[in-house]
């Protein structure tokens, strides 16, 4: 458990450190998304006990993942439109 906690702290520090590095916004966004995905996967794997889940639950997890991504992609154009109106 300590190793998982330390890994989560390290990823969080890496995310915070990206604020001090001057990179292209697209690259920074991609890195932050990857780091956030890694943290979410680690939390789900360890703290939600998915490491011991049966493979028969995998379709439910995948359906939920794709549903969330689909909803995000569905509302993304509205967010872009709202951002351009600022």
Give start-end ranges of low-pLDDT stretches: none
Number of helices: 3
Number of strands: 0
Q: Nearest-angstrom radius of gyration? A: 16 Å
The outline comes out as: flat
Major beta sheet, specifics?
A: none
- Strand residues, percent: under 5%
Succession of helices and strands:
HHH
State mean pLDDT (0 to 100 scale): 86
What is the distance, rounded to the nearest whole angstrom, between the alpha carbons of the first and last residues?
A: 45 Å
Helical residue percent band? over 70%
**Class based on secondary structure composition and strand pairing:** mainly alpha
- Domain module tally: 2
Write a short abstract of this structure:
The protein is 76% helix and 0% strand. The protein is mainly alpha-helical and 86 residues long.
List its traits.
2 domains, 3 helices, 0% strand
Describe the structure.
The protein is 76% helix and 0% strand. With 86 residues, it is mainly α. The protein folds into 2 domains: 1-53; 54-86. Helix 1 (2-17) runs antiparallel to helix 2 (25-46). The radius of gyration is 16 Å and the shape is flat. The mean pLDDT is 86.
